[in-house]
Amino acid sequence: MKDARAFRTGAALALAGLALATAACGDSSVPVERLVDARLPTDVAGGTLADTAPPGNALTEARAQLGKRLFFDGRLSRTGLVSCSTCHAQANAFSDPAPVSTGVDGRVGTRNAPALVNLAWGTSFFWDGRVTSLEEQAGKPIENPLEMDSPLADVVTRVGGDASYARAFAGVYDDGLTTETLRFALASFVRTLVSGGSPYDRHLAGDDTTFDDAAARGEKLFLSERAACFHCHSPGSLTNGGYFNDGSFVAGGDPGRQAITGRAGDLGKFKVPGLRNVAASAPYMHDGSLATLEEVVDQYDRGGRGDPSTDPQIRPLGLTAGEKADLLALLRSFTDDAFLTDGRYQP
Amino acid sequence: MTRFDRRSVPLIVATVVAAVLGAVGLGCAGSSSARPGAGGGGSEGAARDGGAGATGGATADGASAKACPVSPTQLRKAGAALSLSVAPILEGKPFVFGDANALASGVKVTPLNFRFYVSHVSLLQPGGASVPVDLVTATGAVEPYGVHLFNAEEAASAVLRVLAPAGTYAGLTFTLGLDDACNSGLPGDRMPPLTDTSQMTWPHEIGYLFLRLEDRLDTSGAADAGAIAIPTLVHMGGVPGNLFAPTVTVGGALALAAGATTAKTLTLDVGAVFAGAEADVDPATLAMVLPFPEVQAGERLRQHVSQLALFALAP
User: pLDDT tens, A40-58?
Assistant: First the structure.
C-alpha cells in the first residue's frame, strides 16, 4: 500500500512538474488542473476522490465547477449579499476568522464556522453532527435564519433566472436545477477541497525535509498517552470523527451534540475537527473563543475550563514551555500552503 | 533528522514487552498451545481453534497469526440464524448510554463512550465441542475482517448476528477483542471497523483497543463517596505477540432451527467491567502496559475476564 502511495505521489509530482515546466514555456494549451484531480491525503489508503461521492451524485468536474460558482454567489442568500465564501474563506482554510459568523442583515451566529478541509471523507457534519452527508449539509446554511435565510425554493427561483445557470444545471443533472441538485452541486465542490501537501503529509510519506525537530518532538508528544491528543485527533486524518466534551463547554453554554440526541451525557460534546491547516483557521473551538493556537494548547494543558461535564480524558497535562512549543510546531506542520492559495478554488 | 518509522514500532514494542514478560515470568500466551484470544492471563476461557475460518489462518500463539483478510472465507452461506442483542446492565437494570444511571449507593454513572470488538464466535455443543460460526451483517454477508464493533452510540451495532448449523447448543464463546493478525497493522490501510473512526486505535501501534469505556460519575448523592470504586476510564488493549484479547465463554441453552432466526439477549454486566478494572493483579504485569490509569485499568480487566461473569444469555 505504501508503495502504491509513493508511486501515486511520485506520479502526481511528476505530472505537476511537467505541467509547470510546460506552462513556464508559455504553452497556453496546457489545461488547468481540474478540481476533481485532487492529490489524496496521506491517510487515505486508496481509491479516488470520486469514490467518496454517493451514487446519486457522482462526482464530475462539471458538477464541481458548478458548485464552485454557487459557492461564491451571494444570490444563495435572501439579501443577495452573503455567499458560502463569506464565512468560508480560502486563506483561512475555508473557515471564518471571526469567532462567530455574521449572516444576512448583520445577524450573528452562535458557532465558529468550521474549516472545509477533506470533508469528502467525513461521515457527519456541523459541530453537532446533525447531518450525515455533504449533500444534506449544503442546504442548511442557506436556510438558517442567522446565515443566508432563504428557502431553497427561493434560491432556485433566483438562480434559475440566470440562463447560464439553468443551462449549466441542465447539462450536468437530468432534472436540471432543483432544490436537490442545487445542494448536490455545492456538495460536489466542497468534496474537492482536499488538502494533502503539508510538511506533516510529506513526513508521513517519508520526507522530513520540511518537518523539523520541534515538530518531530511535538508528534511524539501528540501521540503519547500523556498528552493523549491522538485519542480524538487520530494520526493521519487528524480526527476520529467522534463527539467529545473537550472542556470548552461552560455551564449554560451551547449544549452541542445534546441538542441533537437529547442525551444527558452528550452535554457539551462537539464533533472532533480535523486539524489540517489548523494554524490558518483561527479562532478555535466551537464558539471561536480561543484566538490562537497557543491559547488552545494552554486550555488543554489546564484540563479545560473546569465544567463537571468535561470528558474524563481531559485532565491537566503539566506541559513545559518547551513541550508546548513542540506541540505548536507540530500543529503548524499541518499547514498546506498550496491548498490555501490554490487557484482552482477561487472564483 | 532520523525518520521515525511507524511500521517498526510494533516489533520494537513487542520485543521490549517480550523481554519484560520473560523477566517477570509471565508468558501471556501461557504455552505454545495458547490461542489468539486466549487472554493475557493465560487462563481465560476455553481453548479454541484460533478462528481460522474468520482470519484465514490464525495459529497457535497469536503472534504467528498471519492474516486479517477484509473478506474472510465464509463458513456457510445458510443455516440457522442467531441474533444476539447486547444489553448492558448495571445492578440488574439497563445501563442506558448517555443517561445518568442511578446506583443503589446514590452514585450516578453516565456512560460517555462504550465500545468493544467481538470476533471468533463459536457455539458450544452439549458435549463441549465448539462450532465456529461467522459473524454476519443484516444482509447475511460476513462482517469485514470477521469482526463486529459494538458502539453504544449506534443502536444497530448492538445486534450480533451469526449463521450456524441447526441444532441444540449449550452456549457460545467469542474473543473480546481481536486476534493478533487483526491487532497488528495500520488502521490507515484498513476499512471499518478497523479504521481510526472506530475510536479503537492507538497511534503507538501496539495494537487496537479491545474495549473502551468512559463515563462520568456524580457522587453528590452518595453517602460515602470515598468508597466508590468505579473507574471513569477503562481502555483494555493488548500487545501483538504477548498480551492477547481474552476469550469469553457464555453458558445457556440455544435451540437453533434451520432456516429460522432465533433471537436472544446477551446481557453485559457493566458492574463486572468496573470490578475487573479495579481488581488486584501482580504489579509487575502492569509494568508491561503504559503507566496511565485508563490503560492499567484495562489491563486489570483483561487479566480478569475469565473470572468475571461479564456476559450472560437471557431468555
Answer: 887 787 789 999 999 999 9
